[in-house]
Specification:
CATH superfamily of the largest domain: Endonuclease/exonuclease/phosphatase
Number of helices: 10
CATH topology of the largest domain: Deoxyribonuclease I, Chain A
Helix content: 25-40%
CATH class of the largest domain: Alpha Beta
CATH architecture of the largest domain: 4-Layer Sandwich
Radius of gyration: 30 Å
Number of strands: 20
Strand content: 15-25%
Shape: elongated
Amino acid sequence: MKKFHLRYAALLLAALMLLTAAFTACKKPDAPDGGTSSGTDTEPAPAELVLIGGGETYNIIRGSYANEAVLDAVKGLRKTLTTQFGDVWQGIITEDWEQGVGKDDIVDNDNAEILIGLTNRRESHTVYDTLGENEYTVRTVGKKLVIIGSDDYATVQAVAAFTSDYIVKSDGKTLSVSGSLNVSGTASLRKIPINGEAKYRLMSWNLGGGIGNADDVLDIMLRYLPDILSLQECNKKIHTDIIAKLPEYFATAVKLHSDGSTYVYTPIVYNTKVLTLKDAGVEWLRDRYTQTNTKSIEWAVFEDKNGETFALINFHGAVCFNTYKGFENYTKAQLSAQVNEWRKGNARQLLEVRDRLIGKYGAIPVMINGDCNFNSSSEAYKILTAGGMQDAEFTARISKVTGYKTYFPFGSTSVESGGSIDHIFGYNSVDFVVHNIVRESQVFTATDHCPVYVDFNPKKN
């Protein structure tokens, strides 16, 4: 037994000697003059980062898993850089993926980079860990400029801040920032910013009588946060469970019909911080199936902080089905003929309301929107355009989305191509800057229509 212990002790001693030798071999040599070794050196932060027009070419790096909002912001950044600097900037915009790097790996390098959002670079993570909820920052870390928010939508605002405060204000030859730059901000409730050339956002959306998930509806509303929500198929439950949960500074122009108890299914909801309601009203569509409460017109006249006055008319166009009393035996052709006449009557009534408001308030800009239940090839649509109404889907001057059917059977996971039936029209020089048909996945659990929105100015400058 004694021999066994001695032999075990000798083996253990030998192993310890080998480990000591291995650690000694791996230890980096001391740097001369008492400094640290080059392998662990922390380079002093440069006094200035010359992002464009300097000795190094800065590339823009985004995360491989960035969402659509960040991707759009990066595209906008590229466009602004091209406009401002032309060929002066020789960098590229690329994702953070590198050969041999895993999804959760952290990358250390000394490249000259502008990092957008939560990339796999260590600097992105270091800065991200300092952010609170709804915060964003533009910060230099060594040779890198980190542009990041607490979430993807806050990152979008960080990109917007950097673009407006640095790129747009540059001389078009060089772009530099302080080596100690640390600019922070709080992201607004609106996660999708309004285009910089527009004052307001208007969203038209049919909520399907509450067919979908109310939380998803509210989440989309808050993410885009229009200054005006122009809604259709809003029963009492939607008024109390969704509209009432919007921020306290939102108000409904007209909530009830003249009987004081019937909820308006086509309400206009607006931001009282930026708009003052001057006048509002509601009326039934004359040409419709009269045994439901869904087909009405609500209108509102607003004044903004600059004293500009404009009007909005919201409606839900007529439909006709065999399930309606008195129409049970109609053929498909007869139903189509009937609803076509009703919709033409809807279009004429809308123009009457528009002209009535102009007669009272002068040549103010007027918008008409809603679930029209007709596309651009219909007679009703042509009555509106012949009356001077211009569809934002085809006239928005910076960007527009077209070619999608805005209605889909509830439970769908995508939108079919085709003509939209949800429109936003303008009259008397309304400036439509951006038009969009929202098609993100959450829409399909919220209702059976895509939200359609415009970023606009009441009048062209």
